[in-house]
Each structure stands twice: as C-alpha cells, then as structure tokens.
Specification:
Distance between the termini: 11 Å
Largest sheet: 7 strands, parallel
Mean pLDDT: 90
Structural class: alpha/beta
Low-confidence stretches: 56-63
Shape: globular
C-alpha cells in the first residue's frame, strides 16, 4: 500500500507525523511519501518537498501558499511522482490553501483522497464543504466542523483530537536555567508573520514582568520550527538593551514541547499551541495581530466570538484574547501578573481550562484514524 501525505504549516507537519507513525505501526509494509517538514521526516516519511514555513495568517500577509505550491516546483514534483507511482490514498492534512487545490486535482484525476484536519467550515467558509464532496472520507477532530460537513452531504467522520492521546503527566527533564519563583512561556508563533508582529510586543512584556517581579522570573521561548531559530535570535539581539538582565532560554528540537510543563503561565499567538496549553491547564494570554483589512474581512466572514481554540470549544473566554491594538505589553502583563500572584485565581483559571480535555473525544484517536485510512 502506498500513501502520499500532503502537509504544510508547522501544525500540519506535526499532525501528519503523528498519524504516519501510527499507520506504520499498524501496517509496517506501507510506503509513505509526501510533502512535509522535520516531524514528518522523523516519522520516516519520504519527503519530496517541504512547505512548512510558507503558511500565512491572512489574505494580504506574506507569500500565498497556493502560489508557492504551483510556482516554486512542488506541483511539478507531485505530477512527476504520480506518473511513476500508483498512490492508493492521497492523504491531505490541514493546510487549507494548498490542500483544497490538491483535492480538486485528485477529483479531476480520479485519485482517492482523504482529508484529515480539514478546513474549519464550522467557523468560517462553510462553502468549502461543497468542494470536498468527492473525498473518500473527511476526518475532522471537531464536532462543530463535522456537523457542517454532514449537512452538505460529505462522507465525514468525527475522530476526536489526537491531544486526547497525550500523557500530560509524563516525567520531564529539569530545565537548564537558574531557578526563579516564576516561569513564563513565550510563544512567538509558527509563522514568520506572527513572529515579526508579536515578538517586539512579547519582549516588552518580558521587560515589564521582570521589573515588576524584581527579576524573580525566567522565560522559556520554544522554537516552533528549526528555520525560525535564526530570525528569532536576530530579533532578540535587536532588543538586547531591553533584555539585559532578563533570564530567558530558547527551547529547540524536541525540548520545545516541554514549554507547557515548565511554564506557570504563557504568552502566545493564537493557534494550536493555545489548545495544548489548555490541555495542560496553563493560564495564558492569546494574542493576535494581522492587517486591519484582513481583520475586518474576518469579522464579516466568521460566525464565532473567539479566535482561541480553547475558547471556541468551551464557548466562553476561558483565556483572554488580545486582538490588534489590544495586544500590547501593558494588557498582556496585567493578566500574567494576576495569574502569578493570585493563587486562588490561578487555580480557578487552570481548572476551567482543563475542561477542554473533555471536548477532545475518546482516547486512541490516532489508532481510529489510521485504521480508517488503511481500510479505505
């Protein structure tokens, strides 16, 4: 059996890798090729092209991933590959910009495809459900998306989210930093645009927190993808005068995943990281900055009140969201200080966030999904 796994963006690379490992475990003789990044490579997927850092946050920000896919060679690579190899399943994972294009291509060329982590049609763009009527199967982690796909007549399965399978109490290595009373995680994001927009705001927040807590605080900064290490170090260097005397450390490679365990609270961009932070019960501030045109259009097109996935799933602002101009150092630090210095409040917020785990479905998600794909 030959499966081609098409991912893009850092989150898609991670979810594709988790699923690839499980598929290989259940069917050792399967051949796995695809588009992906470092996580997919570690899962022993033969990678033809890596588009993990080409994702964008909005309509007018950065390189268009569809343009990158078609013009930078990946589409030609895929066509050549398909001429030489018979694919049993084209597995599309996340990465709506490119994978909706691939779904259309699969339909036109009678290639059986499955979409895992499909577009969030329950949040915005319900019309995208019609584009996936030809899918052999749509596998979504979220019930709010499942209901829309079902309404449009798609062959859809609600699998639950792979985070339901994680061990949140596993032992972790000791953090190699001088001990402080407080530890705060700083998550700049998994896209270049997020890093550029949010890093200066977060760094200024670090300075305020350090001053308010008399330097009795340390910060951990996970590097979401290896290519981001250099630009993040460059930005930190540009703000060296602000960061003077502040204790911080970068978490690279697999160590980046320990940020939730190490941290008492987190300052982060909106994204998958906020869902994982909630699963660990860690109070956070969710930040979001995009162009004003994109933000305005988003307000018109979406039908939800929140951008953070924990808030979407719980249908309440369990974690504060600071959007656009509200995303500033003073607002961020006011929340973080309360988390760190008010134990009763901290416990209340943490307990509330942990309810997110109950929305993720039953355990053994990856095994259910892998079996569904293998048996399709």
């Amino acid at each position: 059996m030959r499966i081609f796994i098409a991912t893009g963006e850092v989150s898609g690379d991670i979810q594709g890798a988790l699923l690839a490992k499980k598929i290989k475990e259940l069917k050792p003789d399967v051949i796995l090729d695809g588009f992906g990044g470092v996580e997919m490579q570690k899962a022993n997927v033969n990678i033809l092209s890596d588009m993990s850092t080409l994702s964008t946050m909005g309509i007018f920000e950065g390189a268009n991933p569809v343009y990158a896919f078609k013009k930078l060679g990946a589409f030609n690579i895929l066509q050549d590959y398909l001429k030489k190899n018979k694919v049993d399943i084209m597995l599309l994972v996340d990465n709506q910009g490119v994978n909706l294009l691939l779904a259309k291509y699969c339909k036109a060329n009678n290639i059986k495809y499955i979409y895992y982590f499909p577009p969030h049609v329950g949040i915005w763009g319900a019309w995208n459900a019609k584009k996936l009527l030809s899918a052999r199967k749509i596998i979504t982690p979220f019930l709010f998306d499942y209901e829309v796909y079902k309404k449009y007549g798609c062959n859809v399965m609600c699998s639950g989210h792979p985070f339901a399978d994680l061990d949140y109490d596993k032992p972790i290595p000791e953090l190699n930093m001088p001990k402080k009373e407080y530890t705060v995680g700083i998550l700049f994001g998994s896209r270049y645009q997020e890093i550029r927009k949010l890093a200066p705001v977060f760094i200024k927040s670090m300075k305020i927190l350090n001053d308010m807590l008399s330097s009795n605080i340390r910060f951990v900064i996970p590097i979401a993808y290896p290519e981001y290490k250099e630009p993040i170090e460059k930005i930190l260097g540009e703000y060296s005068n602000i960061l003077k005397g502040i204790s911080y450390s970068l978490l690279c490679g697999d160590d980046k995943d320990y940020v939730y365990s190490y941290s008492d609270a987190l300052i982060m961009s909106s994204g998958t990281s906020s869902l994982l932070a909630a699963c660990y019960g860690k109070p956070m501030v969710i930040c979001y900055k995009i162009s004003y045109i994109t933000f305005f259009l988003g307000k018109l097109l979406t039908n939800i009140k929140y951008v953070g996935m924990p808030n979407v799933l719980l249908n309440e602002e369990a974690a504060p969201e600071l959007l656009q101009n509200d995303c500033n150092p003073n607002a961020i630090t006011s929340y973080i200080i309360k988390y760190l210095t008010d134990k009763e409040y901290y416990t209340k917020i943490s307990s509330n966030l942990l309810r997110v785990r109950d929305t993720l479905g039953e355990k053994n998600v990856l095994e259910r999904v892998a079996k569904e794909i293998i048996e399709s």
